[in-house]
Amino acid sequence: MSDFPKPKPSFIWSEILPGGAHWSGVIRRGTVLRLTDLEGNANVAMLINNLEVKNERYNMPDTLKAQKTAFLTAPNMCFSDMGRVMCSIIADTCGWHDTLGGLSNASLVQKKYGIKTYQQAHNDYFKNAYDSLLNELGKWGLNASDVVPNINWFSKVRIEDSGQMTFVPNHSQAGSTVDLRFEMDCIVCLSTVQHPLDPNIYYAPKPVELSVSKANPVLADDPCRKHRAENERAYYNTKTYYGENPNE
Amino acid sequence: MNKQFFTENRVVYRAVVAAGDPWMYEVKAGQYFRIVDLEGNQAVDTLFYNAQDHSERYSATDTIREQGNIYLTTGSVLQSNLINPMLTIVDDTCGRHDTIGGACSAESNTVRYAIEKRSMHSCRDSFLTALGKCSCNHDKPMTKADLSSNINFFMNVPVSPDGHLDFDDGISAPGRYVEMQAHMDVLVLVSNCPQLNNPCNGYNPTPVEMIIWQ
């Protein structure tokens, strides 16, 4: 058996996820998950749960409030609902990732693109992000109550002063990457279906590459920890959760 | 939905919720639900569930995306996670309400303010107190997993086009109210916010009045 794809030398493993696919797995503390938008205009809907205490999960309001931002980029951290850091954005060539637009669902996809069933199209059938994530959550004993406001990597939704939400097309370029250093052992669920506000009238979800490498140690002057006092306190809480000296 | 004129003889329920208290009650389809900010500048953290099936619940992201605007006011349709209309805001003397700021918790207070603030009273503790005592959930107990992103009635969380988000002074005032009509029987879960560390309720939590009428 020598047919498995070989990861690039710096990666522990890597895998290409086609457009419209869903995926879940464990990303360990101390590793970096790199998402690469291979062709441009990808969207990766993500939910994150703690592997050990599964009802601890990514919390959009806590993440945004603590960092006074309505979108994600480096050096933001993704906070859980328990005051801890799940992952840190240590590098980002895209610049803006959406946290407000939510997920497509079956009725939205049908209204926008029509119907294409598995029987008609085999694996090119039209999928939606809500059902896709429900499918992956179910594999870990999680369910619909765990579908909370998610992250949409590589998508940009601008908010006007009036509150109006505007999807910015052609935002992510081919080759854009975002590097997430995981600070907890997490279950990560993904869907590569198009963003629900993407104005493209065609169902054309894009592939992404997942690649995992070993993280460098997190130092006291780490830019994510130092970004705001809130980030340092959330990192402190994460250290105490793992029984480590939080002042190191 | 059409706004009906409020009269006392159509009131079926009325209660004052003290500052920092939880409140849980069922509003039937067709009924109107009014929250009055009695003294002004109070934040009312609110979640809605389909009373027949609690797994269907208010969804902040579906609500704002379907209306194309992050603020809630008259005409906003509050959507469930299945994108079904749960309630429509039919009257609003405040102007706008937040649904992306979420609810404070003991844990988030340690992050936002100081590690020592953990013991202070918080909204998610109020939510869990209400769920823990609720007689409506014997078949399928509701838990922390049922707490998704809530509405903050009367709260002001402006976002700018460059993506900056902030908590500002409230835009409410004594006696201002928001009123909505239910499209389905909804279980309402409220924390009348006890937050003392930011201006969401003017550093001074105050009571609100809940009125249900038909």
Task: Summarize it.
With 248 residues, chain A is of the alpha+beta class. Chain A has helices at 60-67, 106-113, 118-121, 129-138, 223-227, 229-241; strands spanning 13-17, 22-27, 31-37, 44-50, 71-72, 77-79, 85-92, 97-98, 151-153, 157-159, 165-167, 176-182, 186-191, 208-214.
Descriptive tags:
heterodimer, A: 248 residues, alpha+beta, six-stranded antiparallel β-sheet, four-stranded antiparallel β-sheet, 14 strands, 19% helix, B: 214 residues, five-stranded antiparallel β-sheet, 3 helices, 11 strands, globular, UAAP1 (chain A)
Account of the 3D structure:
The complex is a heterodimer of chains A (248) and B (214). Chain A has 248 residues and is of the alpha+beta class. Chain A has one domain. Chain A contains six helices and 14 strands. A six-stranded antiparallel beta sheet of chain A has the order 1-14-3-12-7-6. In chain A, strands 2-13-4-9 form a four-stranded antiparallel beta sheet, with helices on one face. The model of chain A has no long low-confidence stretch (mean pLDDT 96). Chain B has 214 residues and is an alpha+beta fold. Chain B has one domain. In chain B, 12% of the residues lie in helices and 30% in strands. Chain B has three helices and eleven strands; from the N terminus they run βββββαββααββββ. In chain B, the strands form two sheets. A six-stranded antiparallel beta sheet of chain B has the order 1-11-3-9-7-6. In chain B, strands 2, 4, 5, 8 and 10 form a five-stranded antiparallel beta sheet that branches. In chain B, strand 6 and strand 7 form a beta hairpin. The longest helix of chain B is centred in the middle third of the chain and has 11 residues. Chain B starts with 10 loop residues before the first strand and ends with a strand. At the A-B interface, helix 1 and helix 6 of A face helix 1 and helix 2 of B. Chain B: This is Urea carboxylase. Chain B: InterPro entries: DUF1989, UAAP2. Chain B: Pfam families: DUF1989. Chain A: It comes from Thiosulfativibrio zosterae. Chain A: This is Urea carboxylase.
